[in-house]
Amino acid sequence: MDLCHVPTVREKGWYLALMAPNTKGPNYAWLDPSRLYCHPQGLQDCVADLLLPFQGDPIDLVAGIDAMGFILGAAVAAALHKGFLAIRKAGHLCVETLAEPYTDYSGREKVMEVRTDTISPGLRILLVDQWVETGGTMRAAIRLVERLGGGPPPCPAGIAAICIEDSEGGRWIRERYKCAHCVPPRLQPRFDRHQ
């Protein structure tokens, strides 16, 4: 799809066609959304769709998850006129941090960190990542925010991602938190099966 082309009718998720399928094998995510981020209208519509369920909700800060969640999270923060907090993979922050171990979508054990001087008790935080596949990465981010006291229970204020898959971890997150994602219900089974 041409990066300047905008369809006449823009239904929710039209921009999902901008994502490119994996050509490098099983150690990589099955879709790459970076071309969606290059499309001005596609990115704007994606952010608008993610924010729709949170209209009128008190959100104080947007936190994005390393690394592609930084792009989408910063765009969401800009649209809300809020600050942006980076939740990083371990070893990148030179300030005092809180760490949380997790297993990512590929089964690799990792550690995530967040600086300790940004989240104060009661702060309403919208967590953003590009994708929730197994839920391990997002659950680690949730635990970090909760450990630092962000938001009244349930905290965080919400979860937003291009796709929240219908996996055990995805269902756990949807049952406990207000969520937004961009995949229309008719396409969800295809995304869950990585087709």
What does this structure look like?
It is a single chain. With 195 residues, the chain is α/β, with parallel strands linked by helices. It has a single domain (30-192), classed as Rossmann fold, CATH 3.40.50. The protein has six helices and nine strands, in the order ββααβαββββαβαβα. The protein has helices spanning 34-38, 40-51, 68-80, 136-147, 168-176, 188-192, and strands spanning 20-21, 31-32, 61-65, 83-89, 97-103, 109-115, 125-132, 158-164, 179-180. The strands form two sheets. A seven-stranded mixed β-sheet has the order 5-6-4-3-7-8-9, sandwiched between helices. Strands 1-2 form a two-stranded antiparallel ribbon. Strand 7 (125-132), helix 4 and strand 8 form a beta-alpha-beta unit. The longest helix is centred in the middle third of the chain and has 13 residues, at 68-80. The radius of gyration is 16 Å and the shape is globular. The mean pLDDT is 92. Homodimer. It is found in: Cytoplasm.
Provide a short characterization of the protein structure.
The chain is of the alpha/beta class. The protein has 6 helices and 9 strands.
Strand content: 15-25%
Major pleated sheet: 7 strands, mixed
Number of domains: 1
Q: What CATH architecture would you give?
A: 3-Layer(aba) Sandwich
On the 0 to 100 scale, the average pLDDT is: 92
**What is the C-level CATH assignment?**
Alpha Beta
How do the SSEs run, as a string of H and E?
EEHHEHEEEEHEHEH
What percent of residues adopt helix (DSSP H or I)? 25-40%
Q: Which ranges are low-confidence, i.e. pLDDT below 50, for 5 or more consecutive residues?
A: none
CATH fold-type name: Rossmann fold
Q: How does the overall form come out from the CA principal axes? A: globular
Number of extended strands: 9
Separation, N- and C-terminal Cα atoms: 18 Å
Q: For the CA atoms, what is the radius of gyration?
A: 16 Å
Number of helices: 6
**How are the strands ordered across the major sheet?**
5-6-4-3-7-8-9
Structural category = alpha/beta
